[in-house]
User: Which sequence fits this backbone?
């Protein structure tokens, strides 16, 4: 049964009243902190990968953007960060705030599962379950985790390509910041935390963004802009030395001008709202960790095209419980379950399409890790999902890790699945008996340390896709396509660490092909880049932090408006310089330093060189 509007409103008001009782105070990090430090800053791991236990967590490869890295990068959106990750191809229909998609390791754009604190938040009112990364501004996010390939298997269905997890948690560094370069292009954010006398840890984060540059269309005649508002509220309470209560509320609202077509630019805009509420308990003992979480989220999207409105709406309820146990010095294991109920609808006036319905899924999962010795670990992760329409579906991941001196070798084999979306089941072109897409992924990962300062890592992967869900040629519904398709590639990174500096070279050779053997659209075969950071000590001006990032994106097939054609390659360079000036962090952030004029995707313009000045102060 769906919750009524009064219940939702009451719960949100209670949560807001609780959090907004915060009084501004300074919270300093403690040197000797502990997990259950209810009177000070606790030493906690912000997030744990689901369906893992102590001895098999080393078999997980993920890219992490910490709060510090997010701040120092000058990023305001998820795309700003994700475009730097090897193996990810991004496309955005214009500037910040416009619709954006991620293709992970050559998979489809709806094969990336998106999560909030480990719980899926993909919008079920979209036609194919695609997440719009263009709406994700990140100032109120505490951490972002990227799980590529088989690493997405830990999260359940819809992670065939991988998963991206947005983490919200308490930030114990009270701060405020402003950045931008004009009245129409600026950003502000604020963070404050209060530890009450009775042990409540209460945190408020808020941010605003606005920008207005060129038209979203490459040959448009008017400027398009975006305004974004974010609020994140967190509350933690240690009920005793082993038990902690955690709650978080996240809200964002993005209002954007966009171009519906080459002839429809004026009076065309979108209002995209999303909010999520999570509450649960975490219990920790010497050899176990238990988590119980309840989650609700809602999407409310409206698109206005010269007086006509398209409305999309979806909701989701999730209950999840998990336990991790260290049995002895050889064996660890874990198990849990997750129930998810989705419902949504949409009705369009600008074109003939509609959808309404609901889905439910019960997932049961377990894992085990066994240490043969300090250099050999075998891991297994399994999951069974009972879906309303497709019934029982099993997926698993097997991992073996071997350490030989300075060399670490990892072999992964995993299976995945993606169920059809609400629209593909219940839309005006929907079909009820469509099977889920399935995949098999194999990976070989090698990491070698030449010395403490020089390290090399490489991942070879291959994914085989089966029963792909595609629209029929006569547009009367959806079907499972045959033959199978494959995506394969090689990711590599070479890192040099020096005194107050770090230099990394990354590359990605990929081969994503259609059923007929041709290249898949918007997935280049080659990309590479360089990241360089250095702490500069100038005699007359003191210390500066410099970060330089370069990404080469190879040519690729894309739809140019009339035909599929190759789009030229592009070199993107970003530069950030930061200076601590009497406790104030001054920053200069230049994106697209070379002022490349490019379209990504074709027919949609991207920003040229952008210069932002920033000020951040902790108090």
Assistant:
């Amino acid at each position: 049964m769906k919750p009524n509007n009064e219940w939702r409103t009451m719960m949100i008001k209670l949560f807001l009243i609780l959090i907004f009782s915060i009084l501004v105070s300074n919270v300093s990090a403690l040197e000797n902190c502990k997990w259950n430090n209810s009177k000070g800053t606790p030493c906690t791991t912000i997030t744990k990968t689901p369906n893992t236990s102590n001895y098999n967590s080393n078999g997980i490869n993920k890219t992490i953007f910490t709060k510090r890295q997010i701040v120092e990068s000058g990023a305001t959106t998820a795309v700003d960060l994700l475009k730097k990750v090897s193996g990810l191809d991004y496309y955005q229909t214009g500037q910040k705030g416009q619709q954006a998609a991620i293709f992970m390791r050559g998979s489809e754009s709806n094969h990336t599962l998106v999560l909030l604190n480990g719980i899926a938040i993909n919008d079920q009112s979209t036609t194919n379950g695609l997440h719009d990364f263009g709406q994700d501004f990140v100032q109120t996010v505490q951490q972002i985790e990227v799980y590529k390939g088989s690493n997405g298997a830990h999260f359940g269905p819809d992670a065939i390509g991988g998963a991206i997890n947005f983490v919200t948690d308490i930030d114990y560094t009270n701060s405020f910041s402003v950045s931008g370069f004009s009245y129409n292009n600026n950003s502000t954010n604020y963070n404050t935390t209060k530890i009450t006398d009775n042990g409540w840890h209460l945190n408020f984060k808020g941010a605003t963004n606005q920008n207005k540059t060129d038209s979203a269309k490459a040959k448009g005649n008017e400027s398009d802009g975006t305004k974004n508002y974010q609020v994140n509220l967190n509350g933690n309470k240690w009920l005793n030395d082993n038990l902690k209560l955690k709650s978080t509320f996240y809200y964002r609202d993005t209002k954007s001008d966009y171009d519906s077509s080459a002839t429809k630019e004026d009076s065309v805009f979108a209002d995209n709202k999303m909010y999520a509420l999570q509450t649960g308990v975490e219990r920790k003992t010497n050899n176990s960790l238990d988590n119980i979480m309840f989650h609700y989220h809602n999407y409310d999207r409206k698109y206005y095209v010269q007086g006509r409105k398209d409305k999309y709406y979806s909701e989701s309820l999730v209950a999840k419980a998990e336990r991790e146990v260290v049995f002895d010095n050889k064996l660890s294991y874990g198990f849990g379950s997750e129930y998810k109920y989705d419902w949504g609808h949409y009705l369009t006036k600008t074109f003939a399409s509609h959808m309404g319905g609901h889905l439910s899924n019960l997932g049961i999962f377990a894992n085990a890790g066994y240490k043969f010795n300090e250099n050999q670990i075998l891991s297994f992760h399994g999951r069974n999902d009972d879906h309303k329409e497709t019934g029982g579906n099993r997926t698993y991941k097997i991992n073996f890790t071997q350490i030989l001196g300075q060399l670490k070798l990892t072999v992964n084999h995993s299976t995945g699945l993606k169920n059809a979306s609400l629209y593909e089941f219940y839309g005006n072109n929907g079909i009820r008996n469509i099977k889920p897409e399935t995949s098999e992924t194999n990976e070989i990962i090698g990491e070698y340390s030449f010395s403490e300062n020089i390290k090399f890592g490489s991942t070879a992967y291959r994914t085989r896709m089966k029963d792909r869900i595609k629209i029929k040629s006569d547009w009367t519904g959806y079907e499972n396509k045959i033959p199978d398709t494959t995506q394969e590639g090689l990711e590599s990174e070479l890192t040099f660490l020096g005194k107050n500096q770090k230099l990394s070279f990354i590359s990605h050779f990929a081969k994503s092909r259609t059923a007929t053997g041709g290249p898949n659209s918007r997935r280049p075969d080659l990309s590479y880049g360089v990241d360089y950071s250095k702490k500069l000590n100038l005699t007359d001006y003191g210390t500066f932090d410099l970060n330089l990032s370069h990404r080469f994106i190879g040519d690729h097939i894309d739809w140019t408006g009339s035909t599929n054609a190759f789009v030229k390659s592009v070199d993107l360079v970003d530069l950030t310089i930061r200076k601590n000036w009497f406790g104030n962090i001054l920053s200069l952030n230049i994106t697209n330093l070379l002022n490349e004029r490019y379209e990504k995707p074709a027919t949609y313009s991207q920003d040229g060189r952008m210069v932002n000045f920033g000020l951040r102060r902790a108090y």
